[in-house]
């Protein structure tokens, strides 16, 4: 090989190495840039989630405060009025015995309203939920719904405590109230079935009705599904997942689960 050829080969090798070096530098720059962009996107997502959590927390605190005040008003003011009505009816029965028979239906409905009011004021009070625990609060709410006689609620006796914290228990209870109110308004169901699987590390609650159902996928994508989407968001921000399954004519199933924490 002549010296001229050697120089050409050396130039080719150097050029090739230089090109490879430039390519490597470009790849490294793109890789670092990609990682930085991914990190920024992750930080933005985390910031957005934290903002949503704080916003939901404030909304929940305000809502719970308003509901607590409303519960006290129901119990104290309206409760006193109902008690006064009971006393007035008893006085009328004493003063006018002939009216006693005719006042029986009024007494029955007044007693029904009083029981409903007492149960409602309890379930609206978040302190009450925290004091007695989730399971007892659910049983109280079930008793109230059964008094409405709109459908039959099937809820096996559940005792003990959950592994959820107090805030998560309250959120499960409020979501349960929202689910059952939707069933009362829209489902035309005859039965509501509640099951709970409570273990040392997990929690799952399902609420199923035998009503008319709806197209869940279509509803969640439409403007009419904002209430359902809100339930899912509230559950997720409390460390829970919420799955909604429904088809026309097949009833509706809500499943709330505790999201496992990564260790």
Provide a brief overview of the structure:
With 263 residues, the chain is of the alpha+beta class. The chain contains seven helices and five strands.
How much strand content do the residues show?
A: 5-15%
- What is the tally of helical segments? 7
Overall geometry? rod-shaped
Strand order of the largest sheet: 1-2-3-5-4
Radius of gyration: 31 Å
Largest sheet: 5 strands, mixed
Count of beta strands? 5
Count of structural domains: 2
Average pLDDT across residues? 79
Low-confidence sequence ranges? none
What structural category arises from helix and sheet content?
alpha+beta
Instruction: Please report the distance between the alpha carbons of the first and last residues.
Output: 65 Å
Please provide the ordered H/E string of secondary-structure elements. Answer: HHHHEHEEHHEE
Quick one: CATH class of the largest domain?
Alpha Beta
Name the CATH architecture of the largest domain.
2-Layer Sandwich
- Going by CATH, the homologous superfamily of the largest domain would be Histidine kinase-like ATPase, C-terminal domain
* Helix fraction by DSSP (H/I, runs of at least 4): 55-70%
């Amino acid at each position: 090989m002549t010296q001229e050829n050697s120089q050409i080969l050396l130039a080719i090798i150097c050029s090739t190495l230089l090109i490879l070096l430039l390519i490597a530098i470009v790849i490294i720059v793109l890789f670092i840039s990609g990682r930085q962009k991914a990190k920024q996107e992750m930080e933005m997502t985390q910031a957005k989630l934290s903002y949503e959590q704080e916003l939901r927390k404030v909304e929940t605190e305000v809502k719970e405060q308003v509901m607590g005040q409303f519960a006290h008003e129901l119990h104290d003011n309206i409760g006193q009025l109902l008690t006064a009505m009971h006393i007035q009816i008893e006085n009328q029965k004493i003063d006018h015995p002939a009216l006693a028979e005719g006042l029986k239906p009024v007494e029955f409905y007044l007693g029904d309203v009083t029981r409903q009011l007492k149960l409602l004021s309890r379930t609206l009070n978040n302190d009450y939920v925290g004091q007695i625990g989730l399971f007892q609060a659910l049983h109280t709410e079930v008793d109230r719904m059964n008094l409405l006689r709109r459908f039959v609620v099937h809820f096996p006796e559940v005792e003990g405590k959950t592994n959820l914290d107090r805030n998560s228990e309250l959120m499960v209870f409020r979501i349960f109230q929202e689910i059952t109110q939707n069933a009362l308004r829209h489902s035309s169901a005859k039965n509501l079935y509640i099951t709970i699987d409570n273990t040392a590390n997990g929690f799952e609650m399902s609420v199923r009705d035998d009503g008319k159902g709806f197209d869940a996928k279509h509803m969640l994508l439409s403007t009419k599904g904002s209430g359902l989407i809100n339930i899912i968001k509230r559950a997720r921000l409390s460390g829970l997942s919420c799955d909604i399954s429904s088809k026309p004519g097949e009833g509706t199933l809500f499943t709330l689960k505790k999201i496992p924490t990564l260790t």
